[in-house]
């Protein structure tokens, strides 16, 4: 780390941010009174709030739904307040509010609730994602926090750990080297485009176990050694920045679908080993963008 930046200090700050986020989120978990839709096109809804009729009867279709809750907003607000006070020279990029420019080149990428659909459903697989990114857009540290389960995954250059019950335990990816023996995951295969679905279908047909709906928690379990591969697309910077240090710190691999150094977003694949990664890329490269 450069002069003026302490790895331990930034990890400690990230932990305090995660604690503050959970304090803000906790009153809303399994107690929501409202869920807003960030994707809603109000032009499709008349003033009486009823869907506009169509000329011929048809199977109803829903409008796009991108949920956001007061838990998302409250957590991001409290994180931003702490960073404004303690790291005023750092930038902040989050999912729910406009970007705060950086004066130092360093910025925090935060997703207060990654997996809002799971949060709305009351399922404890959503996470809070926090990462510090350097001036070259390389994530330096990352936290994947699942406070309902009491699991916090930390990653930094050369190491990763899980904090649970007040104790920090080193974590490492599994020893799986063969996709045919692997447990793989993606959040939702139906958000893939047709070419991506084809690639995923190949992976699913090859792997031993396939799981869905875990969002960033799946990457935490790659680092924890129980999931061997996660492949996703259409990701945003705040979706992925925290994942890279955790998976890499635990000995895993992170690339784009071509096998190149990944950008902060887009198509991402994480794997427990070179063997699993290379076998997966045989399929993923065909639909890489």
Task: Please explain how this structure is put together.
Helices cover 29% and strands 25% of the residues. The chain has 289 residues and is of the alpha+beta class. It has two domains: 7-30 and 66-170, Fructose-1,6-Bisphosphatase, Chain A, domain 1; 179-287, 3-Layer(aba) Sandwich (D-Maltodextrin-Binding Protein, domain 2). It has a seven-stranded mixed β-sheet, with helices on both faces. A five-stranded mixed β-sheet has the order 11-10-12-14-13, sandwiched between helices. It has a two-stranded antiparallel sheet with strand order 1-2.
What's this, in brief?
The protein is of the alpha+beta class. The protein is 29% helix and 25% strand.
Distance between the termini: 33 Å
How much beta, percentage-wise? 15-25%
| Assigned CATH class of the largest domain | Alpha Beta
- Total count of helical runs of at least 4 residues: 8
Low-confidence stretches: 41-54
Number of strands: 14
Quaternary status of these chains? single chain
Features of the shown structure:
D-Maltodextrin-Binding Protein, domain 2; Fructose-1,6-Bisphosphatase, Chain A, domain 1; single chain; alpha+beta; 7-stranded mixed β-sheet; 8 helices
């Amino acid at each position: 780390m450069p002069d003026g930046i302490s790895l331990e200090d930034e990890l400690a700050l990230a932990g305090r941010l995660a604690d503050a986020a959970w304090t803000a989120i906790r009153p809303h978990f399994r107690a929501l009174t409202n869920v807003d839709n960030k994707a809603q096109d109000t032009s499709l809804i008349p003033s009486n709030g009823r869907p506009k009729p169509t000329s011929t009867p048809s199977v109803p279709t829903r409008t796009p739904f991108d949920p956001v809750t007061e838990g998302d907003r409250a957590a991001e607000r409290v994180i931003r307040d702490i960073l404004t006070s303690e790291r005023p020279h750092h930038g902040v990029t989050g999912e729910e509010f406009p970007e705060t420019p950086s004066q130092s080149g360093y910025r925090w990428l935060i997703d207060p609730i990654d997996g809002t659909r799971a949060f709305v459903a009351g399922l404890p697989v959503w996470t809070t994602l926090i990462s510090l990114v350097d001036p070259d857009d390389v994530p330096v540290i990352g936290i994947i926090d699942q406070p309902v389960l009491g699991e916090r995954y930390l990653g930094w250059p050369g190491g990763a750990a899980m904090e649970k019950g007040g104790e920090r335990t080193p974590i490492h990816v599994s020893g799986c080297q063969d996709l045919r023996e692997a447990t793989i995951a993606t959040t939702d295969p139906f958000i893939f485009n047709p070419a991506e679905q084809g690639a995923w279908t190949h992976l699913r047909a090859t792997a031993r176990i396939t799981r869905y709906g875990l969002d960033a928690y799946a990457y935490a379990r790659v680092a924890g050694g129980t999931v061997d591969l996660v492949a996703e697309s259409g990701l945003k910077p705040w979706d992925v920045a925290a994942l890279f240090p955790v998976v890499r710190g635990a000995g895993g691999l992170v690339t784009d679908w071509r096998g190149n150094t990944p950008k902060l977003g887009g198509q991402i694949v994480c794997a427990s080993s070179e063997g699993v990664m290379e076998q997966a890329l045989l399929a993923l490269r065909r639909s890489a963008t």
